[in-house]
Amino acid sequence: MKELMLGNKAAARGLYEAGVLFASSYPGTPSTEITEELAKYEDVYCEWAPNEKVAMEAAFGASLAGQRAFCAMKHVGLNVAADPLYTMSYTGVNAGLVIAVADDAGMHSSQNEQDSRHHAIAAKVPMLEPSDSAEALEYAKMAFEISEKFDTPVLLKMCTRVAHSQSVVERGEREVICKTYEKNIPKYVMMPGNAKRRHPFVEERTEKLREFAETSGINRVEYGSGKLGIITSSTSYQYVKEVCGTEASILKIGMANPLPEKLIREFASKVEELIVVEELDPVMENHVRALGIPVHGKDLLPVCGEFSQNMVAKALGREVPEGRTLDENLPMRPPVMCPGCPHRGLFYTLKKLGCTVLGDIGCYTLGAVAPLGSMEMTLCMGASVSAIHGFNKALGAASENKTVCVIGDSTFMHSGMTGLANIAYNQSKSTVIILDNSITGMTGHQQNPTTGFNLRGDPAGKIDLEALCRAMGFNRVSVVDPYDLKTCETVIKEELQADEASVIISRRPCALLKYVKRKPALKVNADKCIGCKSCMKIGCPAISMKDGKAVVDATLCVGCAVCTQLCRFDAYEGQCEG
Prior knowledge:
The longest helix is centred in the middle third of the chain and has 24 residues, at 192-215. The chain is globular and about 80 Å long. By secondary structure, the chain is an alpha/beta fold. The chain contains 20 helices and 22 strands. The strands form six sheets. Strands 3-2-4-5-7-6-12 form a seven-stranded mixed beta sheet. It has a five-stranded parallel beta sheet with strand order 14-15-16-18-17, sandwiched between helices. Strands 9-11-10-13 form a four-stranded mixed beta sheet, with helices on both faces.
């Protein structure tokens, strides 16, 4: 049966057909939908883990027990999970273990655009890289075969375009293969004596995988009519095909690590000019150069950002086929917090108080954007809590009474708790604000350990944030409603002046959650409005100015009434229907 599928959905289908029984992931765009789609198959156990390290370790445990297992994350999530990954390369697996990692060239929703191929090379594990939905399904299944054949975890490298574009796939049948767990201390207990004996196994496996890359057909040659040869992979392969058609010969790489050598040498010998077209770092280009083969690559194409048909066409000196031109000079739409976002009132208050705000990863990172402009640092998941400790230890009284950090509830569970433990243990006078919107908002409303529901929406264990913070040694733990600006201001002032560390929990559910009921939209009395623009300071997209007066877009307004607290003239004086 053929079907049009998103790349992430196709990958999930491939996992299902491969007989996956266990999946543990942490949501991260553009990988999130793989696990969400896999969870639609009721005979697969799926969960959201607190972070990527936990997810990978849980998947390893299921593999050890004899069930084919899976975990998914985005590229920066693989940094968090690198600790188990690099040692799993030594232990190998029992049942197959596949790890999807989704890169984000162009940084559509990420703080960097690192190239995950480096992790595969450094960890010495195979990596497969599909270029469309059909290959996402095919490679997901193949990854388990490789995993069990070569006794290794396997990385499945997705990217934004493959994950979120559609192409035709053909469904197959599910086949479940389980193995028996057998005690094997030399293989699975990685203390130095055992690890020393496992390292040669890793090197021998790499050579076997290199031969597999030469002969398996996952890397394929498509000879064209011209004298130009192109080595490429992933979405770059699609751009090359659209631009060159059958004129150029193409070596399409499906196995990003280890890369073939004989195949590349043979291909290079049959073309007059060789170009590597790859997004981000020159991984394949450097491999070709190391073989002593003249090649062009990053001298023609950029090392930064996402490629396009136009860019590839220009680099290759060709025109984009008619009807396929993509206008890259599209108008930009700046990101903005949603109408009724519970974080808006809190950030307004922090700016009003002149606080230094160390931020974290989440939709609340938009607190750095005008007109709020109140966040001054964002590094990685959990870093705000760790950083405020160092910041205040460095500056002491000069910062303690005016500096706060903010972190979302999901991010706090991901990696904020250890930073909070550091504050409690090493005693900095830091004020931590947990932005509890009762969901993992930025990646599309996934559950987390504080919500009380699991991935499928069933009741689950629920972490009590107040009790947790008190158990970690914090005497001062308060809860505020970010829609109540006066109380927020009072509590923040009190905690900044306190002589010990404190936690403020800013709690209100995300305005976009289905169970959060919208109130009737507000309206402005034009006779009372003097056009002072005080209400514009919160940056709500439902409010604009027209003919010198504030107006409310009733289709956007959720009736949060934060704006009414900013108007000294009571111009927001009622609510209209709808």
